[in-house]
UniProtKB/TrEMBL annotation:
InterPro entries listed in its UniProt record: FAD-oxidoreductase/Apoptosis, FAD/NAD-bd_sf, FAD/NAD-binding_dom, FAD/NAD-linked_Rdtase_dimer_sf, Reductase_C
Keyword Oxidoreductase: yes
SUPFAM superfamilies the UniProt entry points to: FAD/NAD(P)-binding domain, FAD/NAD-linked reductases, dimerisation (C-terminal) domain
Residue ranges occupied by any FAD/NAD(P)-binding domain in the UniProt entry: 3-283
Pfam families: Pyr_redox_2 (PF07992), Reductase_C (PF14759)
Protein name in UniProt: Ferredoxin--NAD+ reductase
GO cellular component terms given for this protein: cytoplasm
Gene3D superfamilies, sorted: 3.30.390.30, FAD/NAD(P)-binding domain (3.50.50.60)
Required cofactor(s): FAD
Length: 392
């Protein structure tokens, strides 16, 4: 769509393994499960729009090989399609735990709309849910299930929730929130066995020896990146396809964007895969512009959100887990922010809990070079935009 918006006139074909037209995933663990969002609202490229935009959809079709010399891809239907430019936006699949395979009946993964529909249907006739994984998806599932009245037990192998991306203080806020809402949190434990009982339920045996029973289970332990095609075609990969800031791989005719791309970002030391809605959209825009020889805009500050119960959590920038943030408002009680400053006392990252205005203002402050006045920034009565030192 970005290519068309920027004036591309040649033929565009979109090949997708799923039988559905392209859709947004964030609501799959939230509004869709709760019945608040209809699937049709999630479609980004419905067939009618694709036809209007002259984009050919080949759905339910998997690309099995890339021939870089011939500039063709082969599909599982045996078709060989030529390309001038190839964009790999293959994302990833739900990571499976060895020996703990989802069966789509009592044990589920969560990545696709089909997964979410299966979970929703099973939740409607379940009283209890076991969630494996205390990252964003596991927590959003737990919140959706509690809101739907299910008993929820959540098992997380690490010592705290979202341990890869959150500082300990925010992990503790989330643990407190879920415990208060009645989730039985089992941190620092992991299933060694998970199986359907065959009589409409599941049992899990944990490393600690605990045995858990529930009507259904969802395994939400992250993503396995779909970079095999690129690797088989001889492109450089390292848990993701390596690209330049515009998404170009080492082959000038091939780009990679979204969850599958490992891309340099000025806010990060080394090329990184940022699995977020924002990055998928920005990288699509950058690649479209690069393909059309238009200027690529500078990278934006990474942004991510999650909704759990009545908590809206947003992260702008990449918080330094070792540094001490400024506390603004009352993040512990679910209304306030944590602000990180760089060594020059400029704002570089924010985690906001039910404080979207702080994120909106931080967007305008980050990268401006303005120095933050710590006492004013800590005072939630002072708008964040007024918490900067003014030139005398
Ligand atoms: C349940 C859920 C909730 C989320 N919530 C949030 C949120 O609240 N905020 C946020 O910022 N992000 C969220 N995300 C992350 C966000 O959805 C992803 O970052 C985004 O989907 C990445 O888009 P993508 O196009 O790179 O990859 P994907 O969305 O994974 O799409 C890749 C597509 O390529 C297809 N494919 C793969 N290999 C092939 C092949 N060989 N041939 C043909 N097709 C292939 C796949 O089937 C898939 O349809 C969430 C993700 C999930 C799963």
């Amino acid at each position: 769509m970005a290519l068309r918006r920027h004036g591309a006139t040649g033929p565009i074909t979109l090949i997708g393994r799923e039988p559905l037209p392209p859709y947004e995933r964030p609501a799959l663990s939230k509004g869709l499960l709760l019945g608040e969002t209809a699937f049709e609202k999630l479609l980004v490229l419905p067939e009618t729009v694709a036809a209007e935009q002259a984009i050919t959809l080949r759905l339910g079709t998997t690309v099995t090989a890339i021939d870089r010399a011939a500039q063709t891809v082969t599909t599982d239907a045996g078709d060989v399609l030529p390309y001038g430019t190839l964009i790999l936006a293959t994302g990833g699949r739900a990571r499976a735990l060895p020996g703990l395979a989802p069966d789509g009946r009592d044990i589920f993964a969560i990545r696709t709309a089909a997964d979410a529909e299966g979970i929703r249907a099973r939740m409607a006739r379940s009283r209890s849910l076991l969630v494996i994984g205390g990252g964003w998806l596991g927590l959003e599932l737990a919140a959706s299930a509690r809101k739907s009245g299910l008993d929820v037990t959540l098992v997380e192998a690490g010592p705290r929730l979202c341990g890869r991306v959150l500082p300990p203080a925010v992990s503790a806020i989330l643990a407190d929130l879920h415990t208060r809402r009645g989730v039985d949190l089992r941190l620092g434990d992991a299933p060694v066995a998970l199986a359907s009982t065959g009589t409409g339920g599941v049992t899990a045996r944990l490393a600690s020896g605990a045995v858990l029973a529930a009507d259904m289970a969802v395994v939400a332990v992250g993503l396995t990146v779909e970079d095999d095609l690129a690797r088989a075609a001889g492109l450089a990969t390292a848990d993701g396809i390596l690209t330049d800031p515009a998404g170009r791989t080492e082959d000038p005719a091939i780009f990679a964007i979204g969850d599958v791309a490992r891309t340099p970002h000025p806010a990060l030391g080394s090329p990184t895969r940022l699995e977020s809605w924002q990055m998928a959209n920005l990288q699509a825009e950058a690649a479209a512009r690069a393909i059309l020889n238009l200027a690529v805009p500078p990278a934006e500050t990474p942004w991510f959100w999650s909704d759990q119960y009545d908590l809206n959590l947003q992260i702008l920038g990449l918080p330094d887990m070792a540094a001490q943030p400024i506390r603004r408002g009352s993040p512990e009680t679910g209304r306030g922010s944590l602000l990180w400053l760089d060594p020059a006392e400029r704002l570089c990252a924010v985690i906001a809990l039910n404080a979207p205005r702080d994120i909106a203002m931080a967007r305008r402050l980050i990268g401006t070079g303005l120095v933050i006045d710590r006492p004013r920034a800590a005072d939630a009565a002072v708008p964040l935009k007024d918490a900067v030192f003014r030139a005398a």
